[in-house]
Amino acid sequence: MNETVEKITDSPAELTTFNYETTTNQSIASNETWVTLSERIIDTVMFYYLPLLVLGGSIGNILSVMVFYKTKLRKLSSSYYLAALGVSDTCFLLTSFCQWFNFVNNYNLYNQNIFCQFFTYLSYLSNFLSVWYVVAFTVERFIAVLYPLKRQTMCTVRRAKIVLCGLTVVGSVINFPMIVYSNVVYTENSTTCGLMDEYKDDMKIFNYVDTAVVFVIPLTSIIILNTFTGYTVWRVAGVRRTMTTHKRKTTSIRENKLHPSIQKCTHPNGNHSTKQSCPKTVRQKITNSSQMKVTKMLLIISSVFVCLNLPSYVARMLVFLEKDSKPFIVLQYFAYIPYLTNFGINFILYCVSGQNFRKAILSMFRKSTTQRQQEGVTQFQNTYEAPDRTHLADERSLETDRGTKCTSYIR
Q: How far apart (Å, rounded) are the C-alpha atoms in residues 123 and 329?
C-alpha cells in the first residue's frame, strides 16, 4: 500500500519533493521509532520557541524599521535595504505564527479558502524578498568597497528604492503560482491547506525553480561577494594601520624641525594635520570611517544569514537526492530551527555589530522622551495660566465698577 502526502509544509524551506512522492510503509521499525521521537522533540521545541521568536523578532524588526527611517541613517542607501528586510522578515514570522496558532488551537482559519492561498503566497513571497534583499545590500557593499569611485553614483538612495521595487515586483510574479496551486484539501479525518491534485506535477517543477532562485543563486552570490569584500576590507585595514603609524612618526619629526609654530588639529581617531588641511582631511576620514563601519556590520549580517540558512538548504538538497531517506527528512526538521531564527535575530545583530545603529536608536529614544517632556510642560503652562488670566479679568472689571461708583458719588 502506498500513501500520498498532500499537505503543504510549514515553510518554503520544507517544501521538497518528498511531499509529493509516494512513500512505502515497508520500513524498519527502529527507524520509524527514531523518526517519530525526533518529530516529537521538534514539535515540543517549536511549541514554546516559535511564539517567543515571533514576538521578540517582530518587535525588533519594527524598531529597526523605525530607526532606519526616522533617524540620520535614512540618508544611507543601505538603510532602505535593511528596513525592507525588517518588513519581509516580520511578514514571514506572522505567517509562521498563524500556522502555529492553527496547529495549537485547532482553529481552522488557516485551512479555509482565501486564507489558505493568502498565507501560503505571503510565506513564499516574504521568504524570497528576505533572501534577495540581503543579496542586494551585499552587492552594494561589494561595489562600495572594491569600486569606491563609483559609490557616489551607484550606491544612492534613489537606486536602492528602484532595486527594492523591482525585487518586490519580480517576487510577486514568480510566486504567484502558489495562489493557484494551494487549496483546501478535505479528507475523512481532517481539513488541511494543501495542493490541488491536478497541479502536483507543476509543483515539482516550481519547487526546483524555487530551490535555484531562493537557495543556490543567492547563497552562492553572497558567499562569493562576501569573500571578496571581506578580503578587501582586511587588506585596506592593514595598509591603513601601517600608513597611519608611519605618517604620524614622519609628520611629527618633520613639523618639529621645520615648522614648530604651526598649529595642528587632531582628528578623533588620533591623526594630526595642519590647520589649513584639517577640514577636508577630517571630513574625508570621517566619511571613510563611517562607510567602513557600515560595511563591517553588513558583512556580519549577511554572513550570519548564510550560516543560519545553509543547514536547512543543505538538508533540502539531500532530500532531493535521497527522496526516501528518513534521516535526511529528520535533519531537515532540525535545520528548520536556525532557518526560522534568521527572521527574528537581525535587531540583535544591528545592536551588537553596528555602532551607528546603537547611537541612532539612543538618539531616537532621547528625542521622543524630550518631546514628551516639552509637550507636558507646555500643557501644564497652558492649564496653569488660564485661571490666572480669568482672575486678572475679574479684578479689572471690579476696579472699573469701583471707579464708576466713585465718579457718580462725586457728581
A: 21
